[in-house]
């Protein structure tokens, strides 16, 4: 049954059928051929139960928060300010790409939105200043992946919802690995540009007074992140309530910069509806498929398979990591999470590993899937923002940053406290 379900998933996705629809079709197939449970009679109630959650309300709110900041002109100001602080490093504006992606990851919660934002602002600079297109675009695609690691993260909300894990604990656990990844991206950029200076383009230095003035542009984003994430950890607000506070604050920030009008509000709301509808279709389709798989006994079958391998817990964990890396080449990231979480997480818990820690490890693996072909979404987002060149250039540019992610996977396995230290574990 495992082989049939996997083949069906890959085959239907290859036909360009929407992911959410694929999950429902697979659920119907599993119900009809592998389970005697009359599942279709309760389909309506199941879909309603999957969507009727106060936790999931945070998703459209965080999406709207990011849409407001992007369409309100805050992105360009943030990029310009960070340019004045980091462009003196070997690599120049490449570091501004990574720093801006890190900053927006702390507000948008979406990797694709982060990559699209930075690419739209940065690409004209690369063409004008003569940067190597591979490294420049690869840094944007990789930096965008931080949107699902650094809190608030929509993917961590989904993980917490599906595994009944504390979302504030997941947010806190993602902070250190996320920042370490950002530092790692900049470090590998420095090494590459010291090796081949032509990759990095022009290095620019600014005076202390100009840098201090640039802080004025960064202060609203920093305050927004503090308000959203700080209110969660202070116990003042739930993640959903904090998201609502963030939306209100984002409107004020965009308004202060003169970026709020009726057209901007309409575009932000329409964008939010589209993204949220896609996410919820995938979540509900996955809930339906996961229930049918459980009814058909796939979870027990997979656990028996893993146990039958006779491996130690660490070896079993490495097998699971390898499975995620391979699946990441072919399956869209959110779909990869919601399809595998109900199967893999119980195995991880039985092995004695922490659910919060595994959530962060999974996110790093999912981040890799965002920049590895053929399905890596960030590759296509960045290529779409370019005026010339091939997708292959973006893929090649991502290779050094994929290596940084592999190092982070190894570090999390070797030192779990990287994800758990802020939670006091």
From TrEMBL:
It comes from the Bacteria. The chain crosses the membrane at residues 7-30, 50-70, 135-158, 170-195, 215-236, 242-263, 275-298, 304-327, 334-353, 359-382, 394-415. Keywords: Cell inner membrane, Cell membrane, Membrane, Transmembrane, Transmembrane helix, Transport. It is a multi-pass membrane protein. It is found in: Cell inner membrane. One of its GO terms (cellular component) is plasma membrane. One of its GO terms (molecular function) is transmembrane transporter activity. InterPro entries: DctM (IPR010656), TRAP_DctM (IPR004681). Pfam families: DctM. Residues 8-417 form the TRAP C4-dicarboxylate transport system permease DctM subunit domain. Its main location: membrane. Belongs to the TRAP transporter large permease family. The complex comprises the extracytoplasmic solute receptor protein and the two transmembrane proteins. Part of the tripartite ATP-independent periplasmic (TRAP) transport system. This is TRAP transporter large permease protein.
């Amino acid at each position: 049954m495992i082989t049939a379900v996997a083949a069906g998933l890959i085959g239907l996705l290859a036909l360009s059928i929407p992911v959410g629809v694929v999950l429902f079709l697979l659920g119907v197939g599993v119900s009809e051929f592998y389970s005697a449970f009359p599942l279709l009679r309760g389909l309506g109630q199941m879909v309603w139960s999957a969507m009727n959650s106060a936790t999931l309300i945070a998703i459209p709110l965080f999406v709207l928060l990011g849409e407001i900041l992007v369409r309100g002109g805050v992105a360009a100001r943030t990029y310009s300010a960070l340019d004045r602080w980091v462009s003196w490093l070997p690599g120049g504006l490449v570091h501004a790409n990574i720093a801006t992606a890190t900053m927006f990851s702390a507000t948008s919660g979406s990797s694709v939105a982060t990559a699209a934002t930075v690419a739209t602002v940065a690409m004209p600079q690369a063409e004008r200043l003569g940067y190597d297109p591979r490294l420049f675009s690869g840094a944007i695609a990789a930096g965008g992946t931080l949107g699902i690691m650094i809190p608030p993260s929509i993917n961590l909300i989904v993980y917490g919802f599906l595994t009944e894990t504390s979302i504030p604990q997941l947010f806190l656990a993602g902070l250190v690995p996320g920042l370490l990844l950002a530092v790692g991206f900049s470090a590998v950029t420095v090494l590459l540009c010291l090796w081949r200076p032509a990759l990095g383009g022009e290095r620019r230095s600014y005076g202390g007074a100009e840098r201090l003035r640039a802080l004025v542009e960064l202060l609203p984003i920093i305050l927004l992140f503090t308000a959203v994430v700080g209110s969660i950890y202070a116990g003042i607000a739930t993640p959903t309530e904090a998201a609502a506070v963030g939306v209100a604050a984002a409107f004020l920030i965009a308004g202060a910069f003169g970026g709020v009008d009726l057209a901007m509000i309409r575009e932000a709301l329409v964008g939010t509806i589209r993204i949220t509808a896609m996410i919820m279709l995938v979540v509900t389709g996955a809930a339906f498929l996961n229930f049918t798989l459980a009814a058909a006994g796939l979870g027990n079958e997979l656990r028996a398979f893993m146990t039958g391998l006779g491996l130690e817990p660490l070896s079993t964990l490495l097998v699971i990591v390898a499975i995620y890396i391979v699946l990441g080449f072919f399956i869209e990231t959110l779909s990869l999470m919601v399809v595998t979480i109900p199967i893999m997480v119980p195995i991880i818990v039985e092995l004695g590993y922490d659910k919060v820690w595994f959530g962060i490890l999974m996110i790093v693996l999912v981040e890799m899937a965002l920049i590895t072909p053929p399905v890596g979404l960030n590759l296509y987002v960045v290529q779409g923002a370019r005026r010339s060149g091939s997708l292959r250039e973006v893929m090649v540019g991502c290779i050094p940053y994929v290596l940084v992610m592999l190092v982070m996977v190894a570090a999390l396995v070797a030192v779990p406290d990287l994800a758990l230290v802020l939670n006091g574990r």
